């Protein structure tokens, strides 16, 4: 193999490793739906995320007027009351080596004072225990984005079948200064087919939780859930936390700098060996010439 071909081959390897490393930083927590692969063009396909993202959709489901659009979802009870301002529309989950990323899409804004938006709830074992929650508004002594080991939840009122709504008490596991982030985004229009339905307002709740905070539950199945204070509608999704049970989470993917450094070091070592071999061959030829 020539030196030029060797350099070209190593350049391709480095590029591939860069691509692998960049998968781990796919989401910016800013309430923007586009890095999830979502759009707002007035089509059902707007709800379909990037490949590999886990999701459930319930847009206007159980509404007699529209019929609704549903994907990977079964409603808890006969819910879906109150039109767009009470609509729990979709939920998305994805992971990298460090974080669980989540996004909820709803018709309910952050600033509704009556029957306000609820918190993100996590139930490991999917047995109704709802051990953890992420605070979405900043209430009951918690900051927006706090991950809380919950000791007491509010329940949907009057629709208790919607399940847990707001964190009332618990212990903060990780606060907003420890790497967990959450944004309740501004109004987005024209997501999905119901662009002329009621006011067509959509609000994104986007956040992330460090997998290390859930280390004791690595490899376990769980349910993530969201509803508003009244429980008119709810959205939930079942998933499995990455990692080996009892192993404390995933094996981290090396950072981009480490990957590139390894490739560069390997290339440098190989180049030195090839130059040394070439020098040795030249010396041998010159030595032979002296004998003639």
Q: Secondary-structure element sequence?
A: HEEEEEEEEEEEEH
Class by SSE composition? alpha+beta
* Count of β-strands: 12
**Average of pLDDT:** 81
Low-confidence residue ranges: 10-24, 249-269, 278-292
Computed Rg: 26 Å
Count the domains.
2
Total helical elements:
2
CA distance, first residue to last residue: 31 Å
In the sheet with the most strands, the strands line up as 2-1-3-4-10-9
Main sheet, how many strands, which sense, barrel?
6 strands, antiparallel
Which percent bin holds the helix content?
A: 10-25%
- Coarse shape: globular
* Share in β-strands: 25-35%
Considering the chains and any ligands shown, give keywords for the structure:
2 domains, single chain, 6-stranded antiparallel beta sheet, 292 residues, 12 strands, 2 helices, alpha+beta
Summarize the SSE layout with pairings.
Blueprint: H1 3-22, E1 54-59, E2 69-71, E3 88-95, E4 99-106, E5 120-124, E6 132-134, E7 147-155, E8 164-174, E9 181-184, E10 203-210, E11 221-227, E12 234-240, H2 256-291
Antiparallel strand pairs: 1-2, 1-3, 3-4, 4-10, 5-6, 5-11, 6-7, 7-8, 9-10, 11-12
